[in-house]
Amino acid sequence: MKIKQFILATIMLIAAIPSMRSAEYMREITVAADGSGDFKTITEALEAIRAYMDYRVTVNIKNGEYHEKVIIPSWLENVDFIGEDPEKTIITYNDYAKLDNMGTFRTYTMRVDGCDMTFKNLTIRNNAGRVGQAVALHTEGTNLKFENCRFLGDQDTLFLAGHDSELEFDNCYIEGTTDFIFGPATVWFEDCDIHSKADSYITAASTPEDVEIGFVFKNCRLTADPEVKKVYLGRPWRPYAYTAFIDCEMGDHITAAGWDNWRNPENEKTARYSESGSKGPGANESGRVSWARKLNDAARIKKM
Question: Which of the residues 179, 193, 210, 260 is marked catalytic?
């Protein structure tokens, strides 16, 4: 009789294990630096999200400054990270390329390897200062959307990687000094403020030759600090760099030439640079370099 009871109890315990495990994972998570939420850090919250889940998870991030280097791994997907206020919900770190010889690609404040994610009402900042390459956001995943976010830094603020990655930035503020939007991904920027803090270059696309579209800026505003007088729209980090500006407002800091060949005339034969409907004092299409292309396919380029 006791043996039967033991077997029955064991079977019931085994049957309960899946539900016990599922209870560890949460679909609604609150992060609060002051300890009033489920977790105090974003990194801790990531451990409460189930890998490869088939449902969406919302991570609500309360106002506060989160000094942490965040890595969102590739096995996480279908997650929405929602800040309370983009001016007050700040994720920040201060690594830079020359620090312990870490190089550009390890300097990120946040790295997103996961896919199918949304980020809203957040500031992602690298506050290392003007010490060389210092990435705020590094993306490797695809189907990533950033809404009403701020990206603060100097050189190399946004590294948008992934050969086949597609990303979207809506109503965001992006600032930097040199090449502060760079990488090989296909990216749609709409209604964004692109703010230059030094005489330099905005974009450094490295679009692969077999990728049709790289960076597209639609209805964006190009602004600068008062002392900034000479900024290029882009230079090609790799030969087939693709960057297009459509219906954008350009301040007088944008140089008439518009584009630079990165000290290599051969790039002029391959770089895919174009604009359409530019307006404002920096919209001098007649003065652009002769090798810039006419954007005849503006109707074909649309939000991913």
Answer: 179
Q: In what order do the strands lie in the sheet with 123-126?
A: 64-67, 89-93, 123-126, 150-152, 173-176, 193-196, 221-224, 249-250
What's the CA gap between 242 and 181, in Å, rounded? 12
**Could you confirm whether 179 is annotated as catalytic?**
yes
pLDDT digit string (tens) for 122-141? 999 999 999 999 999 999 99
pTM of the model: 0.90
pLDDT, position 104 = 97
**Alpha carbon separation from 52 to 26, 109, 140, 164 (Å, rounded):** 14, 24, 17, 20
Residues (pLDDT < 70) of the chain are 1-24, 296-304
Distance CA 194, CA 56 (A): 31
193 is catalytic: no
Among 34, 38, 154, 156, which one carries the catalytic annotation?
A: 156
User: At 229, is the secondary structure helix, strand, or coil?
Assistant: coil
**Strand pairing partners for 195?**
175, 223
